[in-house]
Every structure is written in C-alpha cells, then in structure tokens.
UniProtKB/TrEMBL annotation:
Domain of life: Bacteria
Keyword Glycosyltransferase: no
GO cellular component labels: gas vesicle
Record-given protein name: Gas vesicle protein K
UniProt keyword list: Gas vesicle
Region entry Disordered, spans: 1-26
InterPro entries: GvpK
C-alpha cells in the first residue's frame, strides 16, 4: 500500500518556489502596455546616455563645430524632456528603468 498523502514541503523548496514566482513575467492584460513601455524606455534611456557620453567626448576632443554642439545639446535636452513626459504618463520613475543585471550590477549608471 502506498501513502497518497502529500509530503510537507521542505523549507528550501518553499524558498526556491517563492523566488521562481518573483522572477516570472506577469502577463496580466492590465500591465502589458506599461511593462512594454518600461522596456522600450529602458532601451531608449541607455541609448540616450551613450549618445550623450559620445557627444561629450567629441566636444572635449574639439571634433564639432559650434553649430553641431548646439544642435546636439538641444536634441539631447528635448529627448530628456520627452523621456520625462513618458515616464510620468506611465507612472515610472527614472530608477524603474534601471535593470538589475545580477553580478554585473545595474544596466544604467546611478545618477
């Protein structure tokens, strides 16, 4: 005769299941749009920061004319304003766009 009663879960199994639940993607219809916007804004913010650093390097190296510097500065300012508007529209904070890459650290530098 076999015992059909479920065996009690071990403490380690509970912790593992709890962690797995936290790492799952929620496919709730109400949050899909917000989560997609969050992902897209994260990628855009990463690219914006890379472009900003590259522009600063070029300015420091003297590779740009005054007109180019002005145009890049204006473009980066407008992009930053638009990012702020979109974050506010979807209830996101700047730190919400920073992905934790585990042992590698955060995706975006902390500002």
């Amino acid at each position: 005769m076999t015992d059909t009663a479920p065996r009690p879960r071990e403490e380690d199994e509970e912790d593992e299941e709890d962690r797995a639940g936290r790492n799952r993607i929620s496919l709730d219809a109400d949050t899909v749009e917000r989560d997609l916007v969050k992902l897209v804004l994260t990628v855009v913010e990463l690219l914006r920061q890379l472009m900003e650093r590259q522009a600063l390097r070029r300015v420091d190296a003297g590779d740009l004319t005054d007109e180019q510097e002005e145009r890049i500065g204006l473009t980066l300012m407008l992009l930053d304003e638009r990012m702020t508007e979109l974050r506010e529209r979807y209830g996101l904070r700047p730190e919400d766009l920073n992905l934790d890459l585990g042992p590698l650290g955060p995706l975006l530098p902390r500002q």
